[in-house]
Amino acid sequence: MNPPKNKNLQRLSLEKKACKENEANENCKLILGDCLEKLKEIPDNSIDLVLTDPPYCNVFNVDWDRFNKNEFLDFMEKVVIESKRILKENGSIYIFGMLPIVKNISLIMDKYFIYQNWITWAKCRGRNTTNKFGSNREEILFYTKGDIPRTFHRQDTTIKRQYGGGDKRDYVLKGKTPREFVIATDVWTDIMEVGISPKEKSSGHPTQKPIKLINRIVSASSDKDNLILDPFMGSGTTGVAALKLQRKFIGIEINPEYFKIAERRINEWKNQTRL
Question: What is the pTM of this model?
Answer without folding.
Answer: 0.84
